[in-house]
């Protein structure tokens, strides 16, 4: 049975870490189902991936819409051996100033869609006694994040959720892995409106999405429970574990605040 081709479903599969993961699955001869909002981007990515000789199915869905997330489950008729919940978004700014609907959309995409898809496909995997799930967490899930309060909180959910269901299903033949990158050079910050943030302005500090994807892919294939991608991020999480949450929040506030605000503070000193 080893030569029977397996299929991976990847949300957010047309850019950033999701696209780099898709390339790794394609290299290992997995057929792919890639999901994203933009059909044109899906088509471009699918053509690129098909060059390796695999089958690629594209499904255009906005997974921040719960009806579309549920519809995706019903539309996928082929067997899914690996589920990758990569799609996610954030918004930059102070919680009191950010638009409520935008923040609810982040919760719907980062949390609710992950729960909907995981429940649907894990039930199928459990029936077969095998499968793999990779959830895109973040070091943000270990660090309370002023200027991105809701995003960081959603990633704390993903980490807790993945760890708990892994324990529940430890004898099921299904593995659950959380990939925890730090700041990565993707379109995430642009879409979140974060270009003014101190953390983004330092381009050299941003990780390469291909490196992050490789860390996640290797951890997934090894059945590891989680992987923090990047030495600097491991150190940051280790340090935060030794500090009170309030101190971690203050450090993140300073790291993520707008560059312009820091310049104003320096000018006043």
UniProtKB/TrEMBL annotation:
CDD domains on file: SDR_c (cd05233)
Keyword field: Oxidoreductase
UniProt KW Oxidoreductase keyword: yes
Pfam families attached to this UniProt entry: adh_short
Superkingdom to which the source organism belongs: Bacteria
Gene3D superfamilies: NAD(P)-binding Rossmann-like Domain
Molecular function terms, GO-annotated: oxidoreductase activity
Family that this chain belongs to: Belongs to the short-chain dehydrogenases/reductases (SDR) family.
Name the UniProt record assigns to this protein: Short-chain dehydrogenase
Species name: Mucilaginibacter pineti
Organismal lineage: Bacteria, Pseudomonadati, Bacteroidota, Sphingobacteriia, Sphingobacteriales
């Amino acid at each position: 049975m080893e030569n029977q081709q397996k299929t991976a479903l990847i949300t957010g599969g047309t850019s950033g870490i999701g696209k780099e993961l898709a390339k790794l699955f394609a290299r290992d001869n997995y057929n792919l189902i890639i999901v994203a909002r933009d059909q044109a981007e899906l088509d471009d990515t699918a053509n690129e991936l098909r060059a390796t000789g695999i089958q690629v199915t594209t499904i255009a869905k906005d997974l921040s819409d719960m009806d579309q997330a549920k519809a995706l489950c019903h539309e996928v008729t082929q067997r899914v051996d690996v589920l990758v919940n990569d799609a996610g978004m954030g918004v930059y700014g102070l919680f009191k100033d950010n638009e409520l609907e935008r923040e609810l959309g982040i919760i719907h995409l980062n949390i609710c869609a992950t729960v909907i898809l995981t429940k649907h496909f894990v039930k199928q995997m459990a029936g077969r006694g095998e499968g793999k799930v990779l959830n895109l967490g973040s070091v943000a899930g270990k660090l309370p994040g002023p200027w991105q309060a809701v995003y960081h909180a959603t990633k704390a959910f993903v980490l807790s959720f993945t760890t708990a269901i892994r324990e529940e299903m430890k004898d099921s033949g299904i593995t659950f892995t959380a990939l925890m990158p730090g700041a990565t050079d993707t379109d995430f910050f642009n879409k979140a409106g974060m270009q003014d943030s101190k953390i983004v302005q330092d381009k050299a500090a941003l990780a390469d999405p291909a490196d992050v994807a490789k860390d996640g892919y290797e951890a997934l294939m090894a059945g590891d429970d989680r992987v923090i991608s990047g030495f600097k991020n491991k150190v940051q999480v280790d340090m935060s574990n030794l500090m009170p949450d309030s101190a971690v929040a203050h450090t993140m506030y300073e790291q993520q605040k707008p560059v312009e605000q820091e310049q104003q503070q320096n000018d006043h000193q």
